[in-house]
Write a structure and sequence with these properties.
The chain is mainly beta. A hairpin with a 4-residue loop joins strand 38 and strand 39 (703-719). The chain is elongated, with a radius of gyration of 57 Å.
């Protein structure tokens, strides 16, 4: 029982103890909660910003811990906090608190995060009370042996670029007592992993508040600032900084500032050379009472490349800062800098002690001193300039600035062309005036230069002088420019002098060029005004040119009163505008124009041009164009209409330009085109031309080729092909033409043309083309008709012509009936081709005396093949009826007309033969002729003066060849021999013997028989040369009783004289008969 009671008591006691402990813990929590709330409320009312404390704890060693403490943003800011602290540890010395002194052995702030924000008005997220609390001096006595910030964060406007991480700060001996030296030490990470160290000390409660502070960072990485440095082409991955800053002083007198900033491995496209290190050093002193900063020395140096020193003072730093400084450039090697793209530049820039004075409110300071550029040079693919020396002297006094620049240089290469001789150039620029208005006088002189340009042509000038004078007021320039070029030569062109002048009026958004004048011998140009205006800034501008005139009599170019207005709107990736233009009067190469006016519109995608009226050569032209402005203008649609255009002036101009000695006069009654150009070699559309009263005039011979001609044509454009058809002609002659041109806008175009001449009287052709018809045929008898079909094929730089000429009852008679040919009926083939003929050229048999029998059998029994063209000629007379019933069989082989067979009757006999006519290189021909059974009796009967002179039969063979139509180009040979038949014996009359034999044969009293008659001759140089001519006879006793011979090669007769003699003899004989 006792044991049971004891157990009950023990359990009850434990429950009571637990209950008491629980009641005490509940009370502790309630008291702590109340305390946290009161602390939060107290601090909130004290600083004016909501303060939250997450929790609070006490440690047995008198330590106090505050958890998750936040200072919220003011009401005007978005929700969030100004400061958040994960934990604050306060280690107090309680015994000092009883004495009225706040004493902390240690304060540790863990993971504080400061977020400094600004609103649109520039106010910070710090209330006025907090600002006042931080600025008030506390009357309480305190001592903090050590204050530590562990792993803090600070950033502005939550911008990662301004964020400081890993802030670790240690302050020792913070106290309200004077003469207490507080030690400062710490580091932080900024802009990535860049570590910044700081170390120093300060007397916070002394009146002078002396301090020393050093800040340093090694290998500072700029990668976080890439977007800022990219605009300066600085390689942030490569460039590093070493920063060392030391400042010391007090709050009364001021403090010294000494810094060294070293740029290592400067990676920038601004530097052409490998600039390893750039060192910026500053030694300055800030005078607090005087509010001035004295710069004892500031230098910028980099090895042998750069050395700049300066010193000066900045006064009234806080309210109205102004400065006075001296600057010296001891050395600046400009070859280290990328001053020009794709060019090498060298030279040394130096200066004397330059003095500068000004305020930060004014951009331009008062400055005096001299800059020198020595032995500079610029070299690129397009230029080479050496010996550049320049002095720039600046001076300013009483707000008046004077700048005088003198420079000289030598040009060895310009515009990509090497000068044959170096040319020296001198430049002078003088400016003077106050900043509100500066007068400028500038001149440039270039000594003789000579260079060879494209096409191995030489450009030369004795001298070039340019002079500019004017004034600059605010952002405006008003002045005038004069220039003169002397002794200009280009290829074969020479201009003794070219003078020009113009006024310039430049304001903020307007450039006006007034009274522009260009003059040289034989050429003048002027413009009343050319104005470029940007009334709405860069988004819009206009160009307005008025009264532009050009006169160039030598080239027959004259342009009067040309006006142009363009209004252009530009924007972000967009452009648009409109254009108005007009020409009152013009003349080019004799082509006159009256009023031409039009408008145009364009944007970033398309453009259009509309010329509703253009007065050209007495007629009118309308033109509308529409195309693209992006990339290329295609598709480009075109509509054009022309009416009553006089072609005379246009044709004469084209004739002069092309060198073609023909001009076309007439009237283009109407012409039109409507189509679309899809690319430089693709056009689709339709066109037509109607022209009347056309005449073609040969300027060389001063003769008309065509009169009263007409043309009706239609054209269809199908991409890269052009199909056309036309009717053209004059008088009673009309020709139909049709065809196609493939790839007509390319060099490798091919052309196929079909021309058809319907049957027309031969006399009508002569009448229609009387002025160009050969003089020898103007009054000949011309009867019958002809027609033709011709096909022309051109491609791959080769021409091929194929067709037929049809003759019907065609006859030709000499003006004095000295000859006649016809009637001719049949077809003459036409075939011509350029280039090498792969076909084997046709041949004709060998026409030699020894081959006579074989040739006779060949031609008399010849069977004609198919594919031959037949031509018949009724007769051919030349003073007498010579040939009859002529039949010609021929074919065209490439450029050779192959007359495979011809035959006919001649004075009771027959003739046969073959011929070739080759037109591949001029007009060349060959012919072989066989003569069988010619009756000398019949021949002499046809030639009245020879009637009864000789009888007998003749055989012969001849071979001829020549070129052109001149008998002097004819060569050949012929052999003829006589024989007797039962019907016709070989016999020669007494009269003929006496004529050819002379006095020695006068004894013959009657006709004589002969048994041998031969004649061998050559044709050469326009003569018939007798190799052998013999008429002889042997009697029954073998004795020669008749012999007529000529000396070999000693007798010759001119062919022209022979033919004319035969004609005269026949005409005399015919006259006697009448």
């Amino acid at each position: 029982m006792a044991l049971h009671l004891k157990r009950i008591f023990t359990i009850a006691s434990a429950i009571v103890i637990i209950l008491i402990f629980f009641l005490v813990f509940i009370g502790y929590l309630d008291v702590k909660k109340t305390l946290v709330t009161r602390i939060s409320d107290k601090v909130t009312s004290l600083i004016g910003q909501k303060v939250d404390i997450g929790d609070l704890s006490f440690s047995p060693s008198a330590g106090i811990n505050l958890y998750n403490m936040s200072i919220k943003n003011p009401k005007d800011f978005d929700s969030g906090h100004f400061l958040h602290i994960k934990r604050i540890y306060l280690n107090m010395k309680l015994s000092e608190l009883l004495r009225g002194k706040i004493y902390f052995k240690n304060i540790v702030v863990y993971s504080p995060e400061f977020i400094l924000l600004t609103d649109k008005n520039g106010r910070l997220n710090i209330s006025q009370k907090l600002m006042q609390f931080l600025s008030e001096k506390s009357e309480a006595q305190y001592q903090v042996d050590e204050f530590t910030i562990d792993s803090g964060i600070f950033h502005i406007n939550e911008d990662e670029e301004y964020k400081m991480n890993n802030i670790n700060l240690n302050l020792k001996d913070l106290s309200s007592y004077p003469s207490t030296k507080t030690l400062i030490q710490g580091y932080t990470s900024y802009a990535g992993k860049n570590k910044i160290k700081f170390d120093g000390w300060v007397y916070l409660n002394d009146e002078l508040k002396k301090f020393i502070l050093s800040v340093s960072s090694e290998d500072f990485d700029l990668s976080a600032f890439k977007k800022y440095f990219d605009r300066f082409k600085i390689d942030t991955e490569r460039t590093k900084l070493d920063i060392h800053i030391i400042t010391d002083g007090d709050s009364e007198n001021g403090f010294n500032l000494k810094s060294k900033i070293q740029i290592k491995d400067a990676g920038s496209s601004f530097f052409k050379k490998d600039v390893q290190n750039i060192l910026l050093t500053i030694d300055a002193f800030l005078k607090i009472k005087e509010s001035s900063l004295v710069i004892n020395n500031m230098s910028l140096a980099s090895g042998d490349v750069l050395a700049i020193h300066s010193k000066g003072i900045i006064t009234d730093v806080v309210k109205n800062p102004s400065y006075s400084a001296e600057l010296s450039i001891n050395r600046m090697d400009i070859s280290a800098f990328n001053l020009m793209k794709n060019a090498k530049i060298r030279g040394l820039l130096t200066s004397n002690s330059m003095h500068m004075k000004g305020t930060f409110k004014k951009v331009i300071p008062e400055i005096s001193g001299t800059l020198q550029l020595n032995d500079a040079a610029v070299t690129s693919n397009d230029m080479r300039i050496e010996r550049i020396n320049a002095n720039v002297t600046l001076s300013s006094e009483d707000r008046e600035l004077s700048v005088k620049t003198e420079a000289t240089a030598r040009i060895l290469k310009a515009g990509g062309y090497i000068l044959d001789k170096p040319s020296d150039i001198s430049l002078s620029v003088n400016t003077k005036g106050k900043f509100e208005k500066i007068d400028v006088i500038s001149s440039v002189t270039l000594t003789p230069f000579e260079m060879v340009v494209k096409g191995n042509k030489t450009a030369y000038s004795d001298s070039i002088n340019v002079h500019i004078e004017g004034s600059i007021k605010d952002t405006a320039f008003l002045g005038r420019s004069f220039f003169e070029l002397r002794g200009i030569k280009y290829d074969d062109y020479k201009i003794p002098r070219l003078n020009g002048s113009f006024g310039v009026d430049f304001t903020k958004n307007t450039i006006a060029i007034k009274d522009l004048s260009l003059k040289t011998e034989g050429f003048t140009s002027s413009a009343g005004q050319i104005k470029i205006k940007m009334p709405e800034g860069k988004a819009r501008y206009s160009i307005d040119s008025k009264d532009v005139n050009i006169s160039y009599p030598e080239k027959q170019i004259e342009l009067n009163n040309f006006d142009l207005y363009a209004d252009v709107h530009t924007g972000r990736e967009k452009i648009s505008g409109n254009i108005d233009f007009s020409i009152r009067k013009g003349k080019v190469q004799g082509i006159t124009s009256g009023l031409i006016s039009g408008t145009g519109n364009f944007d970033e995608k398309d453009f259009s041009v509309d010329i509703p009226r253009a007065e050209i050569s007495g007629g009118k032209i309308k033109l509308v164009l529409k195309g693209r402005t992006s990339e290329d203008p295609f598709p480009l649609t075109m509509k054009a209409l022309a009416e009553n255009i006089d072609t005379s002036d246009i044709s004469k101009a084209l004739s002069k330009l092309s060198g073609i000695p023909y001009s076309i006069a007439g009237n283009i009654k109407s012409a039109a085109f409507d189509g679309t150009l899809y690319s430089v070699d693709s056009l689709k559309g339709n066109a037509f031309v109607t022209a009347r009263n056309l005449s073609v005039f040969n300027e060389g011979t001063k003769r008309n080729i065509l009169k009263e001609g007409f043309l009706d044509s239609e054209m269809t454009f199908k991409g890269n092909a052009l199909e056309f058809k036309a009717d053209a002609g004059t008088g009673d002659v009309s020709t139909g033409i049709s065809g196609i041109i493939e790839r007509f806008m390319k060099k490798d175009r091919s052309i196929k043309i079909k021309a058809h001449l319907p049957e027309v009287k031969a006399a009508d052709i002569r009448d229609s083309f009387w002025d160009i018809f050969p003089d020898s045929f103007l009054y000949t008898g011309l009867d019958g008709s002809l027609s033709s079909d011709v096909f022309i094929d051109y491609g791959n730089n080769k021409l091929k012509i194929n067709g037929e000429l049809m003759l019907k009852d065609f006859t030709l008679k000499g003006e004095n009936n000295e000859y006649s040919v016809g009637p001719i009926n049949g077809v003459v083939p036409i075939l011509y081709s350029e280039g090498k003929d792969k076909q084997k050229p046709p041949q004709i048999p060998l026409f030699e005396h020894s081959e006579f029998d074989n040739l006779y059998n060949y031609y008399s029994q010849k069977e004609l093949e198919g594919g031959l063209n037949k031509l018949t000629i009724g007769s051919l007379s030349y003073g007498f009826r010579f040939l009859e019933d002529i039949t010609i069989w021929m074919r065209q082989n490439s450029n050779v007309l192959n007359i495979e067979y011809f035959s006919g009757n001649i004075s009771g006999g027959r003739f046969y033969g073959s011929a070739l006519v080759d037109i591949s290189h001029g007009f060349n021909y060959r012919a072989g002729i066989l003569l069988k059974g010619l009756s000398l009796t019949r021949l002499c009967e046809n030639i009245e003066p020879l009637k009864g002179y000789i009888s007998g039969k003749v055989e012969g063979i001849a071979y001829l060849k020549g070129s052109g139509f001149d008998s002097s180009q004819l060569i050949g040979k012929a052999d003829f021999w006589t024989y007797s038949t039962d019907n016709e014996k070989t016999k020669i009359s007494r009269e003929f013997l006496q004529k050819i034999g002379g006095p020695s044969l006068k004894a013959y009293i009657g006709d004589r028989r002969f048994d041998k008659g031969i004649m061998s001759l050559y044709l050469q140089d326009g003569f018939v040369i007798f190799k052998e001519l013999e008429i002889s006879n042997q009697n029954v006793f073998g004795i020669t009783d008749l012999s007529v011979k000529v000396v070999p090669f000693n007798n010759r007769i001119a062919i022209d004289h022979l033919m004319w003699t035969i004609t005269e003899a026949t005409q005399r004989a015919e006259g006697k008969q009448e």
